[in-house]
Specification:
With 179 residues, the chain is of the alpha/beta class. The protein contains four helices and nine strands, in the order αβαβαβββαββββ. The radius of gyration is 16 Å and the shape is globular. Bound molecules: inosinic acid and magnesium ion (MG).
């Protein structure tokens, strides 16, 4: 299959090794434990890209929490289509609860803004955002992220949940294709 072949042929450069990601996730979990002392916490992952980061993050948070997921479609063949479409919604009411939205990466911020507006209609007590990555750009979406793992250069990144046409999500590090 051509896809398998291209996967072995494309050279990947490691941007953030696993050890640095692990250490950073531990720091974020400690911050989250400090910030959410009381109340009910619902951690909401944005599928599919956030599943690896979210799995590691929730296992390091010590306070009780519930997990839920949403799915939106915004990217098509590694390019933003500019259209954010809700594919499925979370399955539990979050009114009066603290919601922590978990993203893999914030690029233009379009997906995140759409999701925040959507989640606000559910009347959570608070709404915070954790994102593994933030792409350095000339946008002002950095202030939308409360718990940030790393800033990455404005290049297409893969691994640790992030895909390129469905592949590479299982890489245990964040990388980019060599040019
Ligand atoms: P935004 O709406 O432009 O902020 O794009 C956010 C979404 O696009 C993320 O949730 C990712 O799923 C996807 N995305 C953006 N940049 C990348 C990238 O470099 N690699 C993989 N996915 C990306
Ligand atoms: Mg995504």
């Amino acid at each position: 299959m051509t896809m398998g072949l291209s996967m072995t042929q494309k050279e990947i450069e490691v941007l953030i090794p696993r050890e640095r990601i692990d250490a950073r996730i531990e720091e974020l979990a400690r911050e989250i434990d400090r910030d959410f002392k009381d109340g009910e916490l619902v951690v909401v992952g944005v599928l599919k890209g956030s599943f690896v980061f979210m799995a590691d993050l929730v296992r390091r948070i010590r306070r009780p929490l519930a997990c839920d997921f949403v799915r939106v479609a915004s990217y098509d063949h590694d390019k933003s289509t500019g259209v954010v479409r809700m594919e499925f919604d979370m399955t539990q009411p979050v009114a009066g609860k603290d919601v922590l939205l978990v993203e893999d990466i914030v690029d233009s911020g379009r997906t995140l803004r759409h999701l925040l507006a959507h989640l606000r209609t559910k009347d959570p007590a608070s709404l915070k955002v954790a994102s593994l990555l933030y792409k350095e750009m000339k946008t002002d979406s950095r202030n939308l992220v409360d718990y940030l793992g790393f800033e990455v250069p404005d290049r297409y990144v893969i691994g640790f949940g992030l895909d390129s046409m469905g592949l590479y999500r299982s890489l245990p590090y964040v990388g980019t294709f060599k040019e």
